[in-house]
Automatic annotation (TrEMBL), chain A:
Keywords: Transferase. This is 3-oxoadipate--succinyl-CoA transferase subunit B. GO terms for molecular function: CoA-transferase activity. SUPFAM superfamilies: NagB/RpiA/CoA transferase-like. Transmembrane segments: none annotated. It comes from Planobispora siamensis. The lineage of its organism: Bacteria, Bacillati, Actinomycetota, Actinomycetes, Streptosporangiales.
Automatic annotation (TrEMBL), chain B:
GO terms for molecular function: CoA-transferase activity. InterPro entries: CoA_trans_fam_I, NagB/RpiA_transferase-like. Keywords: Transferase. It holds the Pfam family CoA_trans. Belongs to the 3-oxoacid CoA-transferase subunit B family. This is 3-oxoadipate--succinyl-CoA transferase subunit A. It comes from Planobispora siamensis.
Amino acid sequence: MTASGGQSTSTSGELLMSAPSPQSYTADEMMTVAAARRLRGGSCFVGIGLPSLAANLARRTHAPDLVLIYESGTIGAKPDLPPLSIGDGVLADTADSVVSVPEIFNYWLQPGRIDVGFLGAAQIDRYANINTTVIGPYEDPKVRLPGAGGAPEIAASCGEVTVIVRQSPRAFVDRVDFVTSVGFGSGPGDRERLGLRGRGPRTVITDLGILEPDPVTCELVLTHLHPGVTLERARAATGWELAAAPGLRETEPPADHELAALRALTGGHRS
Amino acid sequence: MATVIPLAEAVANLVHDGDSVALEGFTHLIPYAAGHEIIRQGRRDLTLIRMTPDLIYDQLIGMGCARRLIFSWGGNPGVGSLHRFRDAVQNRWPAPLEVEEHSHAGIANAYVAGASGLPFAVLRGYRGTDLPVHTATVKPITCPFTGEELTAVPAINPDVAIVHAQRADRHGNVQLWGITGVQKEAVLAARRSLVTVEEVVEELEPHPGAVTLPGWVITHVSEAPGGSHPSYSAGYSVRDNDFYQAWDAIARDRESFLTWMDEHVLTREAARP
């Protein structure tokens, strides 16, 4: 795919229009809308922050029956506004059921009962392994991050995993400094060898586009660019030689109803 | 049978220098008043255990009470970093902090084993991550029936567990509801326990979804109205999300942190109902 002069052509020859300038939405809004669209129904184990916002947007738009599960033990939470923490009172007040923390991990997550795990990341690598623990060496870190929380077992045991993370060379690295949550380890076959029963990350949604694992190599490749974003820009924001998938496409821009629902969740402000 | 006594007395009886102490409460019902009393009493060399250290352990660590931290997620939920925790790990201020780091599933199961009188717990977890490389208390174990390789973590049996609940009766029977986290497991796993409550009532009325801890498994109960702030007690208060956001600026800087602790914790007395 080439990109010049504000227009680009996909490998299928279809003309891609760049977004109107100035855009009527932000890159973060495009990312959140694209992430929400990937949640079609069933149950979703939701991390706090960007995943929680996108999951709540999905429930407010095309997936009203999406069952939101937070690690605080709230199953089927239906908050009016996205909570600040995974344990805000509104999650318990609106849940179908509230269970203890050992129960949410042992009875609900561990057996593979939950369809989608929805995670953020500080670093993610070409095999979709996630680091939320440290930047730099573990014993003498440059940055001490919060750590694992529920993520390692969410990444292992949910039917599949969706990751939402802003794309930059700092975040998209060749190898993560610390494997907090396993994507595809060192490549094909690692999940099976490790006994991880979920299918692992199927989609990584960023503010620039969408990445998916190559079906053969498990390496993350670019399948979508958001409107106005060039392949060169996505490559410059990635710490490995980012490949474009055959049939690289442009993401559908946010529809008015999607933006309205998102802004209602974020208090009318552009996130 | 639990005795109902003032908070300062309960903390003095139960928490000693060098103890392992678990203050639990998963976002909800975090025992802040008890944590502040530990800081006021100047305890040192504690092993602090908590799934989500939250601001209360940021405060205990920043005030030099901790030697070691056993935890699974050390952030300010929805806001960012715990700056005192980061400063201790990255710069050894005010003292070096040893960390024993787990996943939520690992610690939750370690409490379950502790409450169950078992030496360890088994789970599907940690496999392929770098956590077992750095955390000695995560080991592979083979299922004796299927041969499958799983993960074991040793039981957590704290010297003291401290939790906050909505209410207790005069006999020290405790009732909590809403998000109940791992509090029941932490209390049953611990050698000694303290439950702070919003109020002591004549009789506990049934409440949907409530967990009841009988007084005979608890050492002390102390009345501490508002004692979970800036966390919350469902039915009594809501989470003070504004304070969680404000803490980021307060704790980012050592001086502003110490000034805040001096004004809001050190020079205040525990509530004495």
